[in-house]
Amino acid sequence: MNLSDGREVRPMGTDADMGSIRVLVAEDDRAIRELLVHHLERDGFTPVEAADGQATLRAAREGVDLLLLDIGLPGVDGFEIARTLRREGRGMPIVILTARTDEVDRVVGFELGADDYVVKPFSPREVIARVRAILRRSGMKQETGPQTLRFGRLEIDEGAREARVDGRDVGLKPREYALLLTLVANAGVALSRDTLLERVWGYDFDGDERTVDVHMRRLRMRLEEEHRLATCLHTVHGFGYKFSQA
Length: 246
Hints:
The strands form 3 sheets. A 5-stranded antiparallel sheet has the order 1-7-8-9-10, with no helix packed on it. It has a 5-stranded parallel sheet with strand order 3-2-4-5-6, with helices on both faces. Strands 11-13-12 form a 3-stranded antiparallel sheet. It is elongated, with a radius of gyration of 18 Å. The chain has helices at 30-42, 53-62, 78-87, 103-111, 124-137, 174-185, 193-201, 210-226; strands spanning 8-11, 22-26, 46-50, 66-70, 94-98, 116-119, 147-151, 154-157, 162-165, 168-169, 191-192, 233-236, 240-243. The protein has 2 domains: 17-137, Response regulator (Rossmann fold), CATH 3.40.50; 147-243, Orthogonal Bundle (Arc Repressor Mutant, subunit A). It is α/β, with parallel strands linked by helices. Helix 4 links the parallel strand 5 (94-98) and strand 6 (116-119).
């Protein structure tokens, strides 16, 4: 299957049982909600939709396996929904979706029991990848298996956790691989250094932005110098980095 930006995605495994996993998409923006529903369905999940706070609480109480929760829902906001569900003892994983970038909001979300935090605008593929990762951590069985992503000569095998050029393993270290996969999952989208630190090293990492720069230099050396890959890792000056073949 080829995506519109030229990526080839080859599923590895079967989708036979994924449809039993119910993911509640609580988002009042119809376009975003429908986009997420489309990608969830395409990947074999069973999406459930809610456009306001009360509908979200009803659907969550009826039983879902994971909640994609917009903070800015009308009626009852996402923070109050997370607080209510955790107070009721409901343990489904919660991924917060928000346009807010304040650190305080992230801290509040995690303190209320959120499992992950995605800032808009986001890549639907990144959201799906995070859903899968959280379900794996929670022990829920998934049958789709990892995928292989292709960008011209570059191939990223999620199952083997390898990046290959012309079929040859580049030999990335774990952090280098995680950094590349994060950028690839958001192809064409600029990610700030702070965002990359949080997603690759974790929220509690006690380092600074120079850590990202050091790993980016190593990635470029391996891909662009050692394996002669055309420039695909771009610096967004004063902000961060993005992956693009253009």
